[in-house]
């Protein structure tokens, strides 16, 4: 699986603001709102979830 330039921007977005990375990957869906909740509860769980979503898709 090769990374593209957009994948790098998604990863950077996920580190700065985790819901942004999820939004750029899958849009406004269930996973986006789960990531918003995880980010509110703790910044690092939001990052881990966002990176998981980006690497999974």
From TrEMBL:
Cellular component annotations (GO), alphabetically ordered: membrane
Entry keywords, A to Z: Membrane, Transmembrane, Transmembrane helix
Entry's transmembrane regions: 7-26, 32-55
Subcellular location: Membrane
Statement: the UniProt record of this protein carries the keyword Iron: no
Primary residence: membrane
Keyword Transport: no
Domain of life per record: Eukaryota
InterPro entries in the cross-refs: PMP3
Pfam family, one: Pmp3
Annotated family: Belongs to the UPF0057 (PMP3) family.
Name recorded for this polypeptide: Plasma membrane proteolipid 3
Native source organism of the sequence: Candida tropicalis (strain ATCC MYA-3404 / T1) (Yeast)
Lineage of source species: Eukaryota, Fungi, Dikarya, Ascomycota, Saccharomycotina
């Amino acid at each position: 699986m090769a990374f593209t330039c957009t994948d790098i921007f998604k990863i950077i977005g996920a580190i700065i603001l985790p819901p942004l990375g999820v939004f750029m990957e899958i849009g406004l869906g269930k996973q986006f709102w789960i990531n918003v909740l995880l980010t509110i509860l703790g910044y690092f769980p939001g990052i881990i979830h966002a990176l998981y979503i980006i690497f999974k898709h």
